[in-house]
Design brief:
InterPro entries: Aldose_1/G6P_1-epimerase, Gal_mutarotase_sf_dom, GH-type_carb-bd. This protein is mostly beta strands. It is built from no helices and 26 strands.
């Protein structure tokens, strides 16, 4: 594990575990929440606080999709044993490109072979940069199509956040996809009532959300009232979707900037599904900044 630091911030990173973050500590305060027994199979015996999602975000229903007139069946890697989830970069060991006191750059050169085609059928090259400042954490992600044909690409970032008493969240989005019990989108609706956070409000311990917000304004706010600390999430324009997952009676919740909606690859009729079709050599890249104010 590597550690980068700046001011009061210390961040541990696992290159060999999908480029995941092990912890983000500011003095003794947890900013990202280390989760034991992660639902991700390769992380199940590790403590994970955040990880990148490449080459797609969230679920592919039953791990099956059609593209370029071919049908692909991926090996399920979701906890339900049937879907594929969050790409395959989290299943891979990343290479170290550079490492300084406050930054690290990791790369992943993925080439499917007979043993890994069912993880993802296309070749890609990903680069991930973490850079920590006194004010927060900067993340830069990119994914290049290194195959000989077009391929669908999406990405996102998945932090676990502490669900302490009196945590408030706020962000704006005009519409939202409501997930069904299977974690797949059931329908798109106006962002109203219990799903609306235009005005910051307390996330109650028994609140349950598992929704993908569309065209959010790419800025979200989190306040832990008991410590009077704030986290602002800012993302670049490609991250038009925002997944909010608040499992009841758990010590964490997630707010995930993502390019694509859940199961986007199987929903080509949705014009703003957020999946990018890259030609060979094309690159998709984006940035996320987590700005902290408090202790």
């Amino acid at each position: 594990m590597l550690e980068i630091k700046a001011g009061n911030n210390r961040i541990g990173i696992y290159p060999s575990l999908g480029g995941a973050i092990a912890y983000w500590l500011r003095k003794d305060l947890l900013i990202f929440y280390p989760v034991e027994r992660s639902p991700l199979t390769r992380h199940s015996d590790q403590i994970i606080a955040a990880y990148p999602m490449l080459p797609y975000s969230n679920r592919i229903a039953n791990g099956k999709f059609k593209f370029n007139n071919s049908v692909y069946q991926l090996t399920p890697n979701a906890s339900n044993g049937k879907d594929s989830i969050h790409g395959n970069a989290w299943q891979r060991s990343w290479d170290l490109e550079s490492f300084t006191e406050n930054s690290v750059v990791l790369t992943l050169n993925y080439n499917p072979d007979k043993g890994s085609q069912k993880e993802w059928p296309y070749a890609y090259f990903a680069r991930l940069r973490y850079c920590v400042y006194e004010s927060g954490l900067f993340i830069q992600m990119s994914c290049k199509n290194t195959d000989i044909c077009k391929q669908p690409i999406g990405m996102g970032f998945h932090p676990y956040l502490p669900r302490r008493n009196l945590v408030e969240i706020g962000f704006s989005a005009p519409s939202v996809w409501n997930n069904g019990p299977d974690g797949l989108p059931e329908g798109r609706m106006l962002n109203e009532d219990q799903w609306n956070f235009d005005q910051m409000r307390i996330l109650k311990q028994d609140d349950f959300l598992d929704n993908c917000y569309v065209n959010w304004d790419r800025e979200a706010f989190i306040r832990w009232k008991y410590s009077n600390s704030f986290l602002t999430v800012s993302a670049s324009v490609i991250f038009r979707h925002f997944v909010v997952y608040t499992p009841p009676d758990q010590s964490f919740f997630t707010m995930e900037p993502a390019t694509n909606m859940n199961n986007a690859i199987n929903m080509p009729e949705i014009s703003d599904r957020g999946l990018f079709i890259l030609k060979p050599g094309q690159i998709l890249k984006g940035r996320i900044f987590y700005s902290f104010m408090g202790i």
